[in-house]
Amino acid sequence: MNYTTQMDAAKKGILTKELLAVADKEQWEPEKLRKLVAEGKVAIPANKHHTCLSPNGIGSMLKTKINVNLGTSRDLNNMDMELEKVQDAVSMGAESIMDLSSYGDTRIFRQKLTKECPAIIGTVPIYDAVVYYHKALKDITAEEWIQIVEMHAKDGVDFMTIHVGINRQTAQRFKEAKRLTNIVSRGGSIIFAWMEMTGEENPFYQYYDRILDICSQHDVTLSLGDACRPGCIEDASDISQIEELVTLGELTTRAWEKNVQVIIEGPGHMPLDQIAANMKIQQTICKGAPFYVLGPLVTDIAPGYDHITSAIGGAVAAAAGAAFLCYVTPAEHLRLPNTEDVKEGIIAARIAAHAADIAKGIKGARDWDHQMSQARKDLDWEAMFRLAIDPQKARHYRETSKPEKEDTCSMCGNFCAMKNMNRILEGKPITIFDE
Predict the structure, then answer these.
(1) Could you tell me the pTM of the whole model?
(2) Residue 201: which CATH number?
(3) 409 HSE (CA, 13 A, CB side)
(4) What is the maximum alpha-carbon separation in the chain?
(5) Do 119 and 167 belong together in one domain?
(6) Which tens digits make up the pLDDT trace of 303-316?
(7) What crossing angle do the helices spanning 272-285 and 239-257 adopt, rounded to 10°?
């Protein structure tokens, strides 16, 4: 039986090889997973041209997935460094790479990713249009915007962020409502500026059916971009954010009617007490489509530490229903991240994702923690290193502060509770200073 997309196949009762691979990774029954893909509650981004892909499913009932943003910029146009980041991200367990390149020969980099990288590959075509056409923003035509989307689809990109929710109506509401930090989405600011300068409707909104046709032809998952995501906690959950979300809910239904998979982008900066409610609102308005969040960052005061502010928000968001966490590095708001920043961001996001998976009761999530606890009880340092989310750092810390006794660490030494409890329960004496 023929099918056009993963959603089309699922609706027809077909178990694709990608779906079977995801079912195996998640330890799910394929038929149960198929029904969720058919309903749009799970997305399996898998462009037909990305032949080296190792598929992953994105949905609130599955393991929480991690996306890593990277790419060249005018100030740092080093493709080799970006490829090193890609390799590091994949080796550290990131399921998705999003190429946000905004300078240089972006197509060569993008095609290299889809030919060689097994992770899900995402892009934001609106960035690339500005680079590709190399002309004034106001002079880019609606047709040219659409052509860039088609080019990315042909290049094998698995999902694309399209800022389609900020149409002229939502843009007017934004202008009337006022905000402290205005629009902080790069893509959202670009298309807003284009509409203001040309007086035309957002071409991605006006020609949305053409976008859907392109996605259907190549099996591209749509990431419906949140142009009005809050850029500070004061703007969180405001009328601009919610108005755009309502529009995204309507566009989700239209995409599903054409068998195009959808994920919904979310905030942004948000106080801790608003996060869970925002996840529930999204699930309701967008009918259970997977939610993809940047953070959320729970405070605005921590430049240099925003991998931590985002991990706090990400854990709460994923526990409350977000399916996909976009990592944030310590360099957020400050510079293009280097390879060490990328590592710190990935580890923070993976901790948040795992913490949420424990809270959600994801099958097998607690097993990892149980094994680590057993290794600690046994004072089995090699097992602890092997089980650590960052084995290299764990081993480095121990080796740079060697204890007097190999079965302890330099913090507690012979005061080690694990060691002493093991001994006393085995009927052995505890002397501490005399050992």
Answers:
(1) 0.95
(2) 3.20.20.540
(3) 15
(4) 83
(5) yes
(6) 999 999 999 999 99
(7) 30
